[in-house]
Amino acid sequence: MKTPGLIKNFDSASPVAPRRIMAMGASDGYAEQASSPSQRLIGVSQWGRSQAGRTDVVLSWIEEVDYGGTITRGQLLTTDADGKAVTAGDGDYSVGMAFVSGVAGDIGYVLINPSRVDVGSNLTASPAEINVLDNAPANCVFTIGSESSNIINVSVQLRNADNTNLATRRAVQCYLSGANTGATLATAPSGGVAIGTNGLLIEPVADRFFTAVTNASGVFDINITDTGTPTVYLVVVFPNGSIQVSNAITFA
Predict the structure, then answer these.
(1) How many CB atoms lie within 10 A of CB 85?
(2) Do residues 159 and 139 lie in contact, with contact meaning Cβ atoms separated by under 8 Å?
(3) Which helix (H) or strand (E) holds 129?
(4) Domain with CATH 2.40.300 in the chain
(5) How far apart are CA 185 and CA 189, in angstroms?
(6) Which of 72, 87, 157, 168 has the fewest CB atoms within 10 Å around its CB?
(7) What's the start-to-end Cα distance of the chain, in Å?
(8) 128 three-state secondary structure
(9) Domain with CATH 2.60.40.10 in the chain
(10) Residue-by-residue pLDDT tens, the chain, 252 positions
(11) Three-state secondary-structure class, residue 108
């Protein structure tokens, strides 16, 4: 079963037992018998030595290793306090994968492949729940028309987080701001705000704050009318709480 591959000779500042997991030492060219899963594991000692000095470390392929606990073939292995192989947990550094099952005291085999374990959290969402996110408004594209007869039309295309245009009817909160950061609520335009040719407008605060409902293509547009010369900004508030502010809408 044992299939040695790359073997490198290192200095070690302390004794090393045979068949023990090895970690990087304190300096270049040094290795030490591992004692913690938080160490950078590099391989397995071959023969070991009873005092500090030079020792061979197997850095690749399949090598014998002392098991320090119950191991199931295929599990990722890390080290216990004595350099013996135990099952790796989330966040541990791993020396490789167990090639055979065994228990504490057995001489097992590890397919050496140093890495760090990161299993993350299990995703429990269903495809239907993920598809809800796929159709959730996350940003938009503003198209600001030219002023004509004191009216400026602003069209909004809602998009998802992948910057794909939504192809479904959705609602977002909107308001007119006097600041390009969206930090203020603008004075209502003298001629008001009305829906254009796409969507539906519901106005809790007349001409300044409203809910816009898109058409089936994720688009709505509004007509802003003002006989003066104000500059306002259309702000869209998305379901996740983020906002997007249009370029300046300037009446001349």
Answers:
(1) 31
(2) yes
(3) helix 127-134
(4) 3-116
(5) 12
(6) 72
(7) 84
(8) helix
(9) 127-250
(10) 555 568 999 999 999 999 999 999 999 999 999 999 999 999 999 888 888 889 999 999 899 999 999 999 999 999 999 999 999 999 999 999 999 999 999 999 999 999 998 877 677 778 888 777 788 999 999 999 999 999 999 999 999 999 999 999 999 999 999 999 999 999 999 999 999 999 999 988 889 999 999 999 999 999 999 999 999 999 999 999 999 999 999 999
(11) strand
Q: What is the CATH number of domain 127-250?
A: 2.60.40.10
Query: How many residues are listed for the chain in this entry?
Result: 252
Architecture of domain 3-116: Beta Barrel (2.40)
* Owner of token pair 């306090």: 81
Q: What is the pTM of this model?
A: 0.54
Eight-class DSSP state of 191: T
What pLDDT shows up at residue 199?
93
